[in-house]
Design brief:
Blueprint: H1 8-53, H2 61-92, H3 101-114, H4 116-130, E1 139-143, E2 151-158, E3 162-166, E4 172-176, E5 182-185, E6 191-200, H5 205-221, E7 234-241, E8 245-254, H6 259-276, E9 286-290
Antiparallel strand pairs: 1-2, 1-5, 2-3, 3-4, 6-8, 6-9, 7-8
Helix pairs in contact: 1-2, 5-6
């Protein structure tokens, strides 16, 4: 690399020429990157404001996708600005870019072996966003393949490399996209609250069904719960039976992400109604909240 500087006069000439251009390029790239970040933040704030001003209780799929896409475009634009600036600065420093191709190729191969995980994360993030698997504000559960347990939380950020989510305990979980094996989206389209009511084997099934149906109608008529539900809860009938007890299943279709709230209220009202009818419940009353696959 040579700058062609042999004297103080040459240094002054270079400083007024290429040196000044380098300073302007660096300052300009910083200002442009900040403007891109500011503009991206304004766009996401506008998307969030429009979503909050609507009557919808949950974010629309389009809004969640636009939010995630805006964040990715902002991040990509900032990286592109700094990359182009770096190339232009090297040119003004007199670095022959053609001679860097071979070393860059070798370095790229070396980095490729060491950065396989990063490339995997970025590719996985690309497909997560383009396929709209989940987005900002979605309630998701990330677990191993075939497992029903895992980490459940609300998505706060999705980039090409990581997914950041917050659990119900307030913990922030950051997961590289390439390490996500299975995602269950609990806030897509609609969900179900499934309540399995355990009852003693001596209980009158017809009387129990009538009580459960009445509870479902009362819940659906409640002004505070009606907006969360798509239709009235349905008594599916006997789900399981053994020597000492049997189980009756009640199912309620809800808005995405609201199945837990509806399930808790249904469970409390079912327990109260059965006690008032003199039907003794076992020690536990199991509630399972699921969504269709």
């Amino acid at each position: 690399m040579t700058l062609g500087i042999t004297s103080l006069d040459d240094l002054g000439t270079w400083a007024r020429g290429n040196g000044l251009e380098i300073v302007l390029l660096i300052v300009g790239s910083i200002l442009l990157a900040r403007f891109v970040g500011w503009f991206g933040a304004k766009v996401t704030e506008r998307i969030d404001a429009q979503d909050r001003s609507s009557d919808a209780l949950v974010r629309s799929e389009a809004a969640k996708h636009r939010h995630s896409l805006t964040q990715v475009i902002t991040w990509t634009a900032i990286v592109l600005v700094y990359t182009v600036t770096g190339v232009l600065v090297l040119e003004r420093l007199g670095v022959p870019l053609a001679s860097l191709i071979a070393p860059a190729t070798v370095a790229g191969v070396a980095l490729g072996f060491g950065a396989q995980r990063v490339v995997q994360d970025i590719l996985a993030g690309f497909f997560i966003i383009t396929e709209r698997q989940y987005g900002f504000g979605d309630l998701i559960r990330i677990s191993n393949l075939g497992s029903t347990t895992g980490v459940t939380g609300t998505v706060e950020d999705v980039t090409l490399r990581i997914t950041r989510m917050r659990t119900v305990d307030g913990e922030v979980v950051i997961i590289p996209n390439g390490q996500i094996n299975q995602v269950t989206n609990l806030s897509r389209d609609w969900a179900r609250a499934v309540i399995d009511v355990p009852l003693p084997a001596t209980a009158d099934i017809h009387r129990v069904n009538a009580v459960l149906q009445a509870v479902g109608e009362d819940v659906y008529a409640d002004p505070s719960l009606r907006p969360l539900m798509l239709d009235a809860p349905i008594v599916m009938g006997v789900e399981s039976i053994d020597v000492e007890r049997f189980s009756v299943r009640v199912v309620a279709r809800t808005l995405p992400g609201k199945q837990f709230e509806v399930g808790r209220e249904l469970r409390a009202r079912i327990a109260t109604a059965l006690r008032e009818e003199g039907i003794t419940l076992p020690a536990e009353l199991e509630t399972v909240a699921t969504r269709p696959t």
